[in-house]
Amino acid sequence: MRRSGEPEPADLDRCREEEELKADIIFRNAEIIDGTGGPRRKGDVAVTGDRITAIGDLPEMAGGREEDCSGLAVAPGFIDPHVHNDLAVFTHPDMASVVSQGVTTIINGNCGFSLAPLTAPDPVPQPLRMLFGLNAPRFSSFRAYSDRLRAEPPAVNAGCLIGHGTLRVNEVADLERAADARELRAMSRALDEALDQGGIGLSTGPFYAPARASSTDELTQMARVAQRHGKLYVTHMRDEGDRVVEALEETLEIGRVSCCGVHISHHKCAGVSNFGVSAHTLGMIDAARMTQDVGLDTTPWTASSTILNSGRHRQAQRVIVAESEPFPEHAGRDLAEVAAEWGVDLDEAVERLLPATGIFFIMDEQDVQRILRYEHTMICSDGIAGGTHPHPRVWGTFPRVLGHYARDVRLFSIEEGVRRMTSLTADRFGLKERGRLRAGHFADIVVFNPATIRERATYDAPVQAAEGIASVYVNGTAVWKDGEVTGSRPGHVLP
Ligand SMILES: [Zn+2]
Q1: Rounded distance from Cα 237 to ligand 1 centre (Å)
Q2: 243 and 137 fall within a common domain
Q3: Which of 163, 192, 363, 432 has its CA 20 to 30 A from that of 56?
Q4: Residue 265 C-alpha to ligand 1 middle, in angstroms?
């Protein structure tokens, strides 16, 4: 018996159909690039709430707002698997340098250094201090960090790796030696707990002083913990210069022994004497992939950037001072010029400028292109938001790949470029319902012009938003529009 006023089943069906014909936003007449690498097709994309609800020809559907995307591509928001914005998500929550490139998801905590859990007293050693400042908030557990992020979300989605270097600084009494059995147990326990609390994987950086003395065995023990959680061992390898082949062998061995998937961060072959070596390292990766889980990412530039006293200035053709605490006026100047002015050699100039970061012209264009072209390579920026004279990768990485390397140099199609910044990365890091335009997935969306997209950031003028990015949406909310951040902060903590 139906009470009066209750809808007839036929009415319910009609209401549901009408509901299905409505959306919050419809992107009309777009070139849909879905993130899989397949060819673009013309159509519409409908979004309601934080989800994509329909894709295709949707003339019957009405949007609360409609965006005419004629001549524009609509693609999944880009995913940057390698940034150092653990702190910047709080200090620069609009993430202008990130969203202006079309990036909607970032992975922090790279190169062995995560902001959480950090229990060691200040002053913490470099590069932690450069990355996270002296007065940065401290989080003794990963949960405390992600709770804060949930309470104060940034514009983008953020996942975070747990840094072995950070755990080492917390637990190892003497950083000049490998961890002893007790310290190894403490680090394993801390990693286990942080991964339980949502850490997206393990990162290591035996290249950097706090972790340089760690043995292969120590790193393997840490990888075992990550493997038990089904998560990755992500590494800034011990060496990316004269001993890059040995460092890659070590990484692959760690993966084999621990049965953990390994991921090589910002793969490069640094130093003039190592130009061309990428043909060999990619061959090694290809061979290893037959029997173990190996992935990699890279940046589309011939210059790298890290702490000024990394030793890289001795291998580089040119060095730019990015930041210097005691000499901020030298940011953006050539190290050689500063040294000449002071009448000292490069080593002495580096010492005087510390703490400082630099930009090192250290790679061969052919290696950069070879690594980019390799079908398993993801795109990363390795950037840190903020800073007055950063590496141009901070503002320009993703548009540079789609504009310069895909459209102009033709290393691959724009669709393939998008795949390397979306589905490939989402699958690798276990980011569910992101990285593809698909009904039911989160509405992380970038609208861009494939004919004009390009980076504006240069080594001389690095703080410049890219050209050709029309609008960017995170979980259905606009974060970048008309060349500006919108001020919305709809980012989720991932996974
Ligand atoms: Zn690194």
Answers
A1: 8
A2: yes
A3: 432
A4: 7
**Based on the domain organization, do 227 and 277 belong to the same domain?**
yes
Instruction: Judge if 102 and 242 occupy the same domain.
Output: yes
- Determine the pLDDT at residue 8: 64
d(CA 368, CA 357): 22
Measured in angstroms, how far is the CA atom of residue 264 from the centroid of ligand 1? 10
DSSP character for 309?
G
State in Å: Cα 333 to ligand 1 middle. Answer: 23
Ligand 1 centroid distance, CA of 163 (Å): 11
Q: Considering only CA atoms, which of 305, 308, 309, 354 is closest in space to residue 327?
A: 354
Is 62 contained in some domain?
no
Helix/strand/coil percent split, the chain, to 5: 35, 25, 45
Cα 82 to ligand 1 centroid, rounded to whole Å: 8
Element (DSSP H or E) covering residue 337: helix 335-342
Is the Cα dihedral 252, 257, 263, 264 positive or negative? negative
Looking at residue 14, its pLDDT comes to: 65
pLDDT for the residue 310? 87
Strands (E), 390-488: 445-448, 469-474, 477-481, 484-485
What is the count of structural domains for the chain?
A: 2
State which residues form the domain around 337: 306-360
Q: Under a CB-based contact definition with an 8 Å cutoff, are residues 139 and 191 in contact?
A: no
Across the strands, what pairs with 75?
446
Shared domain for 137 and 251, answered yes or no, is yes
Ligand 1 mean position, distance from CA 383 (Å): 10
pLDDT digits (tens, 9 = 90+) for 241-264: 999 999 999 999 999 999 999 999
Q: What spacing in Å lies between the alpha carbon of 204 and ligand 1's midpoint?
A: 9
Ligand 1 centroid to residue 424 C-alpha, Å = 20
CA of residue 298 to ligand 1 center, whole Å? 10
- pLDDT greater than 90 at residue 135: no
Say if 421 falls within a structural domain: yes
Residue after which a domain boundary falls, among 389, 413, 429: 429
400, amino acid identity: R
Q: Could you tell me the strand order of the sheet in which 303-307 lies?
A: 303-307, 356-361, 318-324
**CATH number for the domain harbouring residue 317:** 3.30.1490.130
- Output the CA angle 448-463-265, nearest 5 degrees: 75
> 4 alpha carbon to ligand 1 midpoint, in Å?
68
User: What is the rounded CA–CA span in Å between residue 19 and residue 232?
Assistant: 42
Which alpha helices (H) appear in 355-413, and where do they start and end?
Answer: 365-373, 393-400
Provide the whole-model pTM. 0.95
Would you call 361 helix, strand, or coil by DSSP? strand
pLDDT at 1: 43
The closest alpha carbon to 430, from 81, 187, 177, 104, belongs to 81
Domain boundary among 374, 408, 429: 429
